[in-house]
Design goal:
Strand content: 15-25%
Low-confidence stretches: none
Bound molecules: 1,3-dihydroxyacetonephosphate, iron/sulfur cluster
Helix content: 40-55%
Distance between the termini: 60 Å
Order of helices and strands: HEHEHEHEHHEHEHEHEHHEHEHEHEHH
Largest sheet: 4 strands, parallel
Radius of gyration: 20 Å
Number of strands: 12
CATH superfamily of the largest domain: NadA-like
Mean pLDDT: 97
Strand order of the largest sheet: 2-1-3-4
Number of domains: 3
Structural class: alpha/beta
CATH architecture of the largest domain: 3-Layer(aba) Sandwich
Length: about 300
């Protein structure tokens, strides 16, 4: 036998590229996806950038590499297109922290108070609220409302951070991201001792004390842009480890230190190259949102997109 065996990863990426052409598909991926998944995507971004991108998709099929609420948002904005998620179990636990029945009850207890829902909610919750937000635009969205009191669901950390930047009263919900909640001030201190020159950037899903220990509080998309434009040569990154791949790729001359190798989102990591290939081969797993729910959710998402 002669010849060199083909690299199975290369075979897989070639198979995905061929299937993508055959299916007229586009691949959208969140910044927390595995590096090899980010590398085969047509577009990689944060929650806001992915929603904005989903509005302009022309392909027949969207393969969404992220968690289910993100794929649902793409489907709500593109009801006539096929939206696939390579693993239907890739849910965001924060979405489970604001069940729609509880949100309805709270809304009934607070008549006249507008509700802002972080996009990390189910479509059913989005359909009940006034407007959505992401970590990139939460302050702007809250400030866009004429009211003096706002109910903010479900991330208490993001809500707390917004409270610091607005004179409005933010009524918080008891939700959080289990991945960001694990980041501690001790993590920041330890890395600062090891790398005293480094600038600390943190995500607003972190707890208030971690946010206080950071130099900049940014969404993942804002982190990518900030790193590109900043003079800082060393950066401590207080968010999910998947972002490090994107940061290194876009700013190869800089050094990025993940806050902890344990800061990983197991749901984001459910999406693999193999599953992306199977999704395109078998056209699975299709996202569907009943139109009566989608219509209400679309209104709240589109209102957010008008603000930013
Ligand atoms: P962004 O990428 O929008 O900053 O959000 C992070 C996140 O946890 C999404 O689930
Ligand atoms: Fe949800 Fe946190 Fe994972 Fe984002 S990082 S998808 S908020 S669990």
């Amino acid at each position: 036998m002669t010849g060199v065996a083909a690299d199975p990863r290369t075979e897989l990426t070639e198979r995905i590229a061929r299937l993508k052409r055959e299916r007229q598909a586009v691949i959208l991926a969140h910044n927390y996806q595995l590096g090899e998944v980010q590398d085969i995507a047509d577009f990689v971004g944060d929650s806001l950038e992915l929603s904005q991108r989903a509005v302009n998709v022309e392909a027949d099929v969207i393969v969404f590499c992220g968690v289910t609420f993100m794929a649902e948002t793409a489907k709500i904005l593109n009801p006539e297109r096929t939206v696939l998620i390579p693993d239907p179990l890739a849910g965001c636990p924060m979405c489970e922290m604001s069940p729609v029945e509880e949100v309805r009850k709270r809304i009934a207890d607070l008549p006249g108070v507008p509700v802002v829902a972080y996009v990390n909610t189910t479509a059913a919750v989005k359909a009940e609220v006034d407007i959505c937000c992401t970590s990139a635009n939460a302050i702007k969205v809250v400030e866009s409302l004429p009211d003096e009191r706002v109910l903010f669901v479900p991330d208490k950390n993001l809500g707390h951070w917004v409270q610091r930047h607005t004179s409005k009263e933010i009524i918080l919900w008891e939700g959080h991201c289990p991945t960001h909640q694990r980041i501690t001030v001790q993590d920041v201190r330890r890395l600062k001792e090891e790398h005293p020159q480094a600038v600390v950037i943190v995500h607003p899903e972190c707890t208030p004390d971690v946010i206080d220990s950071g130099d900049h509080v940014l969404s993942t998309g804002q982190m990518v842009r900030w790193a590109r434009e900043s003079d800082a040569g060393e950066v401590i990154v207080g968010t999910e480890v998947g972002l490090i791949h994107r940061l290194k790729k876009e700013s190869p001359e800089k050094t990025f230190y993940p806050i902890s190798k344990l800061t990983t989102c197991p749901n984001m990591k459910r999406i693999t190259l193999e599953k992306v290939a199977w999704a395109l081969e078998d056209m699975q797993y299709g996202i569907s949102v009943p139109e009566e729910v989608a219509a209400g959710a679309r209104r709240a998402i589109e209102r957010m997109l008008e603000v930013v």
